[in-house]
Design brief:
Layout lengths: L4 E6 L11 H9 L2 E10 L5 E3 L21 H5 L12 H8 L4 E6 L9 H11 L6 E5 L2 H10 L4 E6 L6 H7 L4 E5 L5 H9 L3 E5 L4 H7 L6 E4 L2 H7 L5
Parallel strand pairs: 1-2, 1-9, 2-4, 4-5, 5-6, 6-7, 7-8, 8-9
Antiparallel strand pairs: 2-3
Length: about 240
């Protein structure tokens, strides 16, 4: 049996395939990574879709405008790198079920997407994937709403900096993950997360020199675009 590689595939395998597409997710599964991160927005007609930016401009060949202003049918007309399409959240879960732990980042900002939290939870439950996923966000209010709606789903707080001030909030909402930009992670912060039983995610680690440094801390979960490089540097490529 192929050995699992402890690591988080950031939007799939974006250094080889278009980010947040099914082909990119498939590549991460094929490499046997333990975790995968994807981003969720809502279409105009309230369907959760997988795309990082609030706009479709950067990723699509033939689109323009905000995700929230386009229906699912309109979004599905757009192509990515010629052949790929913006996946629905349901399509992504169908592909990933029973294969990889999924970090669902909700791209919520205030009330940009009313009802997003419930829609995402409903889909996770429909697929029977409550134990296979956790939900993350930069938006603390979004995380609070998720916890109010579901008292057992895994939660993760995302932030650029690493501050001890995060821990009381994390404890309040029973947050098992903390996702911090790798440049700001310190040894004391790593130790504090271990003491609080919080899995610390370091993003986005793409340079070999940064990977070598990160590999010295086995408790870290490394989020990367360079999946095969991380497997090699961390000695997990068999």
């Amino acid at each position: 049996m192929k050995k699992h590689i402890k690591g988080m595939a950031h939007r799939g395998y974006p250094s080889k395939y278009p980010e947040n597409t099914l082909i990119s997710f498939q590549a991460a599964c094929d490499l046997n990574f333990t975790h995968l991160e994807l981003d969720v927005q809502l279409s105009k007609d309230g369907v959760p879709v997988v795309i990082h930016d609030p706009s479709v401009d950067r990723m699509t060949d033939n689109g323009g405008g905000q995700v929230k202003d386009l229906t699912l049918a309109e979004l599905k007309q757009l192509t990515i790198n010629g052949t790929e399409r913006i996946p629905t959240f349901e399509e992504a879960l169908d592909l990933l079920k029973d294969r990889i732990i999924v970090d669902i980042e909700l791209k919520q900002m205030g009330d940009l997407y009313p009802g997003m939290e419930q829609l995402v939870l409903d889909m996770v439950k429909k697929k029977g994937m409550q134990e296979q996923v956790f939900i993350t966000s930069f938006d603390h209010y979004c995380l609070e709403r998720v916890r109010q709606l579901d008292d057992t789903i895994g939660l993760g707080l995302i932030n650029i900096g690493a501050s001890p001030a995060f821990f009381p909030f994390a404890k309040e909402i029973h947050c098992g993950y903390m996702s911090i930009e790798h440049l700001h992670i310190t040894e004391p912060f790593i130790q504090r997360c271990a003491e609080e039983d919080i899995q610390l995610i370091s993003w986005t680690v793409n340079q070999e020199s940064d990977m070598k440094l990160a590999a010295q801390y086995p408790s870290l979960l490394i989020c990367t675009n360079e999946l095969e490089l991380w497997a090699k540097v961390s000695g997990q490529n068999g």
